[in-house]
């Protein structure tokens, strides 16, 4: 009998893990370069925390259970709610508080390609600043992370919840309904405009209002801002939203993001807690879609008992990036992390092989020896199957003379080298001299 | 209202996280240097997997719950059981399979200093080899990791389950009882010999047998091996166990572990799945205790439907290491990862400050700008409170002349520098010239 895994989860064997680690490393380095500091919170949170502000859709997706003491807890569904809880309980954190977190979250939804129930998010957030510089710094950091991964052909779609809320207000749609409208609009790419229209009808909107909404969210680019002001000029919310977007566009020059930002009123983002700018980084190639998303959530921290604390952030999806970048990264990675295998010709010299391996390791060279009591031929087969580039052969004679056979496995060549010269030879320094 | 966390969990704010990351980085680098490859498995596992071989004590500690589809799942309590599941379902993995995993596990037990309900383990395992070289390679890798952290005064205690089982056999204690005896003996340091004795009575052992056991496990050092052979010479299990320990001691010389290994028959290890050598790395200072532990589990993978597959491994406890090393590591770390803050004298020049920051970041220098619309004085206060070592002041005049004031915050000195010379100046290269 074989044992399986829960649906929507994955094992990452070393072959795949190396690519993931490459992606994570690049993202982590970029986050740190931009002055974000790492923070970690538990995977399990109290139910009252998880249910405080995720929205009903998210609540349905939470893995929820009782601990042995009878308390309701659950697995976190994002990294933002835990951040808000921490900030609320640590009022003395110096602001702006710039933190990053690359960690797992869990959502019980239908598994599909690039979407798992347990998945890795890479989040940066800036807490304490109400200014668009903070939003832009998050976007520019995320863009730099993607550039460091040599991702190409992406754009940053931006919108502002204030504009969407202003529109709802102008159409006399009450706030509790508009949140449901937003969640429906968020699905437009997934289910299509016709189905969105049907769902909006079910919510209780009439055809005229639905047409107004759908026509409004078709607006894109800088004309969209003029259009919004023209159409709903008297709305304070729309005015603020437009101003914030204009400021973001203005800042895109110093932040070296010129031409990357694109206003798109159809961008909604599904989570309930957004209050201002929302953004999404999308690869133009339709098959790939969104690789990052986020926005401003100025009232979330208050919901957790903190003082009024503006905040904004963006999240990169590692699973999606893996799918997009996997092939290219594999070409960059060396076939094996182990550089040399120290083979023995017989059990008697195994301790010597181990001793030599330890010496190489102390010099920072990833070296292995036989752990299986295998004959020389089988040891070479192992090195070959693991694509280890060099094998050093240790036998009684070699130990006496101090001269060893070094086999270059890829080129099927053999050199005679003194042990002291092994690092020099395999690290290829003789060629760069 | 403030929101809390589940008991036995922790938030790791950046200040603490930097120390943890330092520890994790060193361990990770050592694991990779020794040729271990990273693997990752889900935090959630099916209940049938978790309950297959943990032992009843561990089973009581598992966070267990039903997913929304009604399947029983749970949070993993160690990293070894998931590894065994993966190896069993991937029979084609090249052997020896050397994997590492640094990740969280969950155990519902009484929280205490250095023991949390959600905690981080750093595991290495070698799958496929029945030889003591594999056990010794795990031990030597763990020791190197501890050395890279400059941990001092530790020793590696070793024992062998075959010796303990052989003793039980000789005392006519049946296997199902001996597992309970082992779990009791494992608590000897925690609850004391007297309480162990009482518990063994409850299990049903008579006083004579209890005395025999307690006197036997007092044996330490190389004489212990002679003693075991002398006393239970006819036991095949004891003979094998003694031979394995002798081989480990023999191998300690080539593995550069001479003098570190110490035979200790009182070392049991709580988990049920061990079948051969067990080991523990202990700081001699009694307050600190064990920082790593592991052993051989040759039948675990078969339990998960794999072919007969010997395996061994060791796990380092990050929480414990943090407690021990925290103070010293803090002295090594720089007070701030951010090297320079680019201050502005007024909002008009903020875009220029941002532009200059972006240029420094592109050169790999961690730089920040104001995100709060603060006046210059408050910007300097922020840089000071974050212990950022340098501040560059950007005003209209500086932009015109291209010469900026660079403030060395720690030494309260101010230089005039051209922007191009900033990296050179702050990275201190002028002093090493």
Describe the protein:
- Two copies of one chain form a homodimer.
- Chain A has helices at residues 14-33, 47-50, 56-60, 80-89, 132-148, 161-170, 175-185, 188-203, 207-217, 221-231, 236-251, 300-303, 318-332, 350-362, 376-385, 396-401, 422-426, 429-432, and strands at 37-38, 44-46, 64-66, 72-75, 97-106, 118-127, 154-160, 261-263, 277-283, 289-296, 311-317, 340-344, 367-369, 390-394, 403-408, 413-418.
- The radius of gyration of chain A is 28 Å and the shape is elongated.
- The first copy, chain A, is 43% helix and 21% strand.
- Chain A has three domains: 1-18 and 32-143 and 284-323, Bira Bifunctional Protein, Domain 2 (BirA Bifunctional Protein, domain 2, 2-Layer Sandwich), CATH 3.30.930.10; 154-277, BirA Bifunctional Protein, domain 2 (2-Layer Sandwich); 340-432, Rossmann fold.
- The longest helix of chain A has 20 residues, at 14-33.
- Chain A has 433 residues and is an alpha+beta fold.
- An eight-stranded mixed β-sheet of chain A has the order 1-5-6-11-10-9-7-8. A five-stranded mixed β-sheet of chain A has the order 13-12-14-15-16, sandwiched between helices.
- Chain A starts with 13 loop residues before the first helix and ends with a helix.
- In chain A, strand 9 (277-283) and strand 10 (289-296) form a beta hairpin.
- Chain A contains 18 helices and 16 strands.
- The interface between A and B is large, with 96 and 95 residues.
